[in-house]
Write a structure and sequence with these properties.
With 278 residues, the protein is α+β, with helices and mostly antiparallel strands. It contains 11 helices and 14 strands. A hairpin with a 2-residue loop joins β4 and β5. α10 packs across α11. The longest helix is centred in the last third of the chain and has 19 residues. It is globular and about 55 Å long.
Length: 278
Amino acid sequence: MKAAAFAYERPSDLKAALALMAGARGSTRIIAGGQSLGPMLNLRLVRPELLVDIAGLAELKQVDRGGDELVIGACVTHADIEDGRIPDVTRGAMRRVAASIAYRAVRNRGTIGGSLSHADPAADWVCALPALGAKIRLRSTRGLRELAIEDFITGALESALQEAEIVEAVRVPVMRPAARWGYVKACRKPGEFAHAIAAVLIDPESTGARVVVGAIAAPPIVLHDAAPLFGGRVTADFHRQFDARIADAMLAKAGVTNAADRHIHVAVLRRAIAEAAA
């Protein structure tokens, strides 16, 4: 099956792209790498009347290190991050996440902004970026909005994007020297969609821990203060303090009713915590 007929525009700059979207009559979709939207078009799961191609917009490929954060343009590809073509403020965490996304052909084309816009609950950036404390910058002709990633993802394949609004950039904080990172996902084979994801950022010096559990039929579970999973206080022995029973109860409360599914998620979370401790 092939896509239904649509109009196609390839604007020369961001201002023109936003104007096209604001003035469009009928349904409009943005395309950059096309790794998610392309198959959806061919299967006719989406039938936009206008497709706006932003892959060539230089403004969306810029990367800027300022102060205690890195601003990554929405059209930066997974491969750009994997290969170290942008500054690394996460001590290798984002490079490892990028390298685990699908296959190299997908990483060469797929973009960080496109992945977030698609809002697949099993997507790597959807799960990893909340654990890193990242924020997302949204742009339209009405102006600029910024949200925490966990507030941007509102459901499975649902986001807080408003009409004629696009993802402009992602803001990632510099990782503290004492912070420890773990990211694990369970897939039937490499490159396939995950059926369990866990991301953890733990800082024993500040006794802080942020945990994200993803690949559930809902937005990822984000614990800004995950100390209860470690007996109420995060210490240097946090991997030995992890309480699987509390994690299981957290998942049940979040709506993961199947005990076998909870077991897989808890096992993946335990592995992510062990990775952070290694």
